[in-house]
Amino acid sequence: MMKEHCNILVIDDEQVIIDSISKIASLEELTVDSSLPGKVAFEKISAKDYDLIICDIMLLEMDGFQILNELVKRNVDTPVIMTTGYSTIENAVKSLYLGAIDFIPKPFTIDEMISLIHRAMRYSKLLEAKKKNVESVLLVPCPSKYYRLGYSCWMNKELDGSVFIGASDFFVKTVEPIKLVELLNTGEILTQASPCAKFRTDDELAHPLYSVLSGNIIERNEKVIEQPELLEKDPYFDGWLYRIIPTEFDYEMKILIPCSSDRS
Amino acid sequence: MFRKIGTKLILVVSVTAVIIIGVFSYFNIERQTEVLRAEVQRHANQLSESVKNATRFAMLKNDRDYIQQIIDRIGKDPAINDVKIMNKEGEIIYSSRPGNMGKMLDKQAESCYACHAANRPLEKLSMKNRTRIFTANPDSAQVLGIINPIYNEPSCSESDCHAHEPSAKVLGVLDVTFSLKDIEKQIQSNEIQGAVLAVVAIVAIGFIIGFFVKRYVDQPVKELVNATEQVAAGNINYKITNLGKDELGKLGRSFNDMTKKLDETSQQLYQSTKMASLGQLAAGVAHEINNPLTGVLTYSSFLLKRTKDNPQMQEDLNVIVRETMRSREIVKGLLDFARQSVPKKSLCNINEILDRAIAVVANQVKLNRITIERINDPELPEITADANQIQQVFLNLFVNGIDAIGQDGKIQVRTSHTSLSPRGITQIKNAVCGKTHSLIDPQHKIGGMSSIKMKIKSNGNEGFVYLDPIYGNHRHYFGINLDKGSSNNLSCPTCDMSLIDKTAKCPECGGPVYKIPVPNQGFIEGCASFKDIWQRWGYVDAAGEKKFVEIDITDNGCGIPTENLSKIFEPFFSTKGQRGTGLGLSVIWGIIDNHNGVISVQSEVGNLPAGKAGGTTFSIRLPQGNTKAFV
To answer: What is the band of A22 on the pLDDT scale with cuts at 50, 70, 90?
Structure first.
């Protein structure tokens, strides 16, 4: 039996957030369902087929992270985006570590939310296609010695201790075609799970990439700025974004996922 | 009353004085009496000899009247009780008291017994045996009698007047008795004098000891007790004054140091608790405000998209969107302030940031006729910092300076760079034993940082010592009662492997030395007896001094009263009344702290009517490198 389909499920205990997301989704002609946290949410998830779940972190009844854990436990592969009014680095890191595909701080602008929904919808479709082994979707595998934060940003440590950072093929495919790449300057400092680059697309949306590690930028790939298509062609080598000296390497490595685990 | 240490001391010393002086006086008086009596005895003997010699010739001549005359004459001396001569039959033949003449003495009488024991004829006797002290009548004074035997001599037996038999050895006895009235008086007065002296001495010693005990023990102890009570009652700033140089003085000084440290620690604790609660408050506010802000932002943006043909409405809606975005930044700033977010640091030039900050306040400065004087360090190195946050710090300080000056004044901005010893600012982040067990204990923090835990054995006690993780600082925590200076054994809490370097000696005290490996960074060494504060970390020392950039901002405004100086960095402390939020300087403090820097303030209050200018200097020190090894 085919489940009833709906695009987005919002789990929040604030009606204004649910209404806001509904409004934004209506601009993109997407359907939105909402639920209070707790059992009701899981019942809805099992009853309906959602493309995306947007979940608040600071909920009264049940912590957003608990919901995320529960979803992983129940083998729900619907992409989850975490949101909170208490936006700290720690919350962002924890969200991505626990399996959320993205993190958006409140209050968000319409454009921020739309770009996020766009990515998530693409993600959802890519996942579907991958499952069905659709040949038209060709994902470039992440090299096995690389590590990644969530699904979006990868890192590869060189012998001299410096680290290359870039965007994963999966992430690029959720935003392509990329019109413009905005990078930080050499000498600036990256913080893990904070935006480190912006990819602008033809539909006037800006997609932030969350940095995989914290560190000082010692070099940035000017070629990618000149030819954004490098990102799509060779995301793991020629399409690198930064070379950094990591500052908290050992600590931050703990929450990264080895790309070798993708091949199992 | 006897609970006081001073009273106890006085009592013990007084009792000792009473015993010593009493015994001494007793023996002294005894001795004096003895000497006096011996002297009297000797004197009596001499007199007796004199009488014998004086009457000798008359006796040879048998001139009885003459003898009687001499004896009468001598007997007139008031000190002499009686002078009498008895013949060998015991009859008194001469006496200075006529009534005694012709009396017979009983040789068996007790007083005569010494010489005439068992009818033995009187022979030579020692002076002691010849004298006797007795009381003639119960109500009269004591009397000392001395007998002097008159021996037979050839001149006596051969004299032609009257011949004693040559066989007779003793012809008679001269008995002189002295009244001891004067002597007794003197002895008595000696006794009284001695006793009075003893009492005076005891009382004097009591008073002297009492005075000094009161001065050197009682008062300081009282002051110490008072101080501890004051501190216990919460007056942590109480200081002990009038400190001597003795042990109690030292105790007082340590007490003052202790309360000072306690005060500093409690201040810091107070500040951090306040910051922590403010952080919680900010988190709560951020969470609660961001939800409605989301609604406002979404709906106004939504309307903006739907009213593209109505420019007037677009304009108004743009204001709503813009102001909501501003609110978003304010709430974000509040979260930043509550140190929930990390500054976005990059390499920046402090002189340039100062230029930008001064440009912002340029108009206000001109209006208030204030000049800004710049003393730039041309070789100021670039530092890693969040330029926006640092600019906010400078802006806030300039605005404060302008407020303090009012009209007409000067703000001086000076930049410089400096190097400081790594001691006191470098954190020991990693330490292991010989078997690479980590000694870092995140459970026990010193100054907010994980300490270095070691097992310690000292004088049979066993426990743990937690070393201060800041190299060169000594806020160690000892889990056991440690006898500083004793030989301690330090070892790894996991495998008990010794951390003592047996080949080294502390260069300060010669005691044992601990040597803890720091992976890839050499060794930390230090005095293991904790008697002194010697510590060495060759690796860090070799790296040389740490570099800092310093910024001093000085105004010649009204100044900050001393009592406010310690409070100005506290949240919600404001002297500006309605105009201030009391957050400015605490935000500055938070930002500088986030950059691992230090901000300090010096101020002098100006005496406005007299026209004497005061002034305030804020000094900021920021580390040149981006490392968390700074405090």
So the answer is: very high
Q: Which H or E run contains B285? A: helix B247-306
Rounded CA-CA distance B552/B413 in Å is 6
pLDDT band at B581 (very low <50, low <70, confident <90, very high): low
CATH code linked to domain A4-131 = 3.40.50.2300
- Report the C-alpha gap between B452 and B220 in whole angstroms: 39
**Mean pLDDT in residue range B250-266:** 83
Question: What number of other Cβ atoms are within 10 A of residue A161's Cβ?
Answer: 9
Q: Which of B620, B618, B619, B612 is nearest to B558 (CA)?
A: B612
Residues B256 and B394 occupy one common structural domain: no
The reply to whether residue A107 touches residue B346, judged by beta carbons under 8 angstroms, is: no
What are the chain A neighbours of B291 within 8 Å (beta carbons)?
14, 16-17, 85, 106-107
CB atoms within 10 A of CB A216: 20
Domain boundaries, position B257: 247-337
Q: Are B345 and A187 in contact (CB < 8 Å)?
A: no
Integer Cα distance of B87 and B93 in angstroms: 7
What ipTM goes with this model? 0.85
How many interface pairs between A and B have CB atoms less than 8 angstroms apart? 92
Which backbone phi and psi does B433 adopt, to 5 degrees?
-95, -175
DSSP B594-617: HTT-EEEEEEE--BTTTTB--EEE
- The whole-angstrom distance between B545's CA and the closest CA on chain A is 21
Map out the domains of chain A as residue ranges.
Answer: 4-131, 147-263
How high is the pLDDT of residue B630? 33
Tell me, yes or no, whether B434 lies in a domain: no
Residue of chain A minimizing CA distance to B334: A86
Contact across the interface for A109 and B325, Cβ inside 8 Å: yes
Q: Do B302 and A24 touch (CB under 8 A)?
A: yes
pTM of the model: 0.50
The topology (CATH level 3) of A147-263 is OB fold (Dihydrolipoamide Acetyltransferase, E2P) (2.40.50)
